[in-house]
Amino acid sequence: MDYNDNIRNKLALLPDLPGCYLMKNEQGTIIYVGKAKVLKNRVRSYFTGSHNGKTQRLVADIRDFEYIVTGSNMEALILECNLIKKHMPRYNVLLKDDKTFPYIKITNERHPRLEVTRRVLKDKAKYFGPYPNGYAAQQTKKLLDRMYPLRKCKTMPKEVCLYYHMGQCLAPCEKEVEKPEYDEIIQNISTFLGGGHEAVKKDLQQKMQEAAEELYFERAKELRDQIIHIEALMEKQNINTTDTKDRDVFGYAVDKGWMCVQILYMRQGKMIQRHSSSFPFYGEAYSDFMSYVTQYYSDNPALPQEILLPEALEVKDAATVLPPEPDEEAAAATAASGGGAAELSAEDDAEEETAADEAAVTEARDASAEGIVDAAGGAAALQEWLGVKVLVPRRGHKKKMVRMACENGRVALEEKFRLIERDEERTSGAAQSLGQSLGLENLSRIEAFDNSNIQGTNPVSAMVVFIDGKPAKKEYRKYKVRTVQGPDDYETMREVIRRRYERVLKEDLPQPDLIVVDGGRGQISAAVDILENELGLFIPVCGLVKDDKHKTAELLVGDPPEPVRLARDSEEFYLLQRIQDEVHRFAITFHREQRGKSMVTSRLDSIPGIGEKRRKLLLKHFGSLKKIREASVEDFRPLSIGDKLARQILDALQDEETV
């Protein structure tokens, strides 16, 4: 029975129940995990009808599947998250960096301190965040360290340090600090991190005025600096809401098989930060978006009071189509009903908006019991799991916030693709311009060579390939020089050019439009001689000459080679620099590998009683010369090496280390 028959038989047995499905490839590896309100319908959809390019790639790899039935959509949501974390499937949206989001932590100790951490533990400490990046968290901690005198030392010192003299530590190492004093500081920090920085700033301004009036100008300056730091840290706040709730606002956009998720962090009614993630996706867009949200909250202890999610966005021609503006929706609804819009106060509007959103979630929860899951159904499952309010707003200010998050995602994807297109235009344009400067009709494929050795030892060469101005790394090649003894760069070039283009002719590989050698007239002449006189190939060869700082200085081409004048700030010159730097990096890396291997070989071979067989055995068992040196005599016994020889090996390696 082939895999198609196996899949058909399994599809016929799928139940009409919610659950998770696991797609497997030919090797039995799980490559995709998904959830479904009705397993039969969702799993069958992969094997019927047409799909976009990304999903086609996933389907082409599927050879088998299995499924797990769950009791509810919430259970399916949690199970999917756990399975993704366990198996890390290739085609799933993976929040690989659960620890990416840093937190500010107030430790649960007799003398607490502030720290930035990416590990959230059940240690009764207070965690604030998550912050979108480490820099934001560190800057916030730095400000709090200036303002609040918690201890800074991980290990309690024996005497007071500079922080005490700067007024940034209470010196618990020197004197007793009572718990109420710490409680007050922790409460102030909690207020600040909870979004109450305006109240903190106002209090500091009052203290600054009092210090100035009492002629304590140094203290007034310190307080003024703290106020400036608060303003600088919070200057990105640009959205306010009428209430003071903590919210996470999610939005997403898709285009060309990529998804961008935006999270706006609202604290105390103000937007304080945002986080953006872009990644390729292979499944259904909204389902993969919800997988991202579920993974995000699976290890997040700092839950907001409310989470706002978008509705499923319409996707046309692989690009997101945002829903109409809320005002347009209201106008359209009014026009359809033939009536005028009722005027509501801000409070009435907010209450009605919340009531409508909560009613939608309640309806979705009832519907989800019947297996009907949409955006509101996903929100209902998430709300049941997290225990906080999760809404899919239909109108009003919350709808505008979600729309703004989606719009940010759309703009971020557009910017990503514009940058890619611009880079492609610049690189392909640079290759064309370089071809024109060299008198070539077409310049698509460039192959570049560089040699590397130290006083003739371990001579190697390397070739890199650039196609339309971009590196084609799969076509890079390394060469161990076989026939040349000593540091002879010209003969090394002759050998490598001969080996490369004999193979090109023999295997009918694509020929380059231009060959670039690292060097001047001698290297060019050596390459041309082999190509034309031995192989009958007439491929243009140019040489790149470096200056005394080992930077690209001049391009030589022709017979005899003559310099081609290129502006130092031109795209063509920049392309040549990239090619020369890349081939040099590739060659020198290969040379270091070979030199390292030969050094290990020579060290072990110089020890009496160690031949080629035992040398290979030792390296295979221990992994490196360093590990052999750190081993004990007993570690050699599994290799049938006696204690006497083991001591000789260790003594020889230790002697070499001390030389």
TrEMBL record:
Q: What does the UniProt entry say about where the protein is found? A: Cytoplasm
**Positions of region (Disordered):** 327-363
State the coiled-coil residue ranges.
201-240
Q: Which residues form the UvrC family homology region profile domain?
A: 249-531
User: What are the record's GO terms for cellular component?
Assistant: cytoplasm; excinuclease repair complex
What keywords were assigned to this record?
Answer: Coiled coil, Cytoplasm, DNA damage, DNA excision, DNA repair, Excision nuclease, SOS response
Its domain of life reads Bacteria
Protein family = Belongs to the UvrC family.
User: In its UniProt entry, what is this protein called?
Assistant: UvrABC system protein C
Record organism: Paenibacillus stellifer
Gene (name only):
uvrC
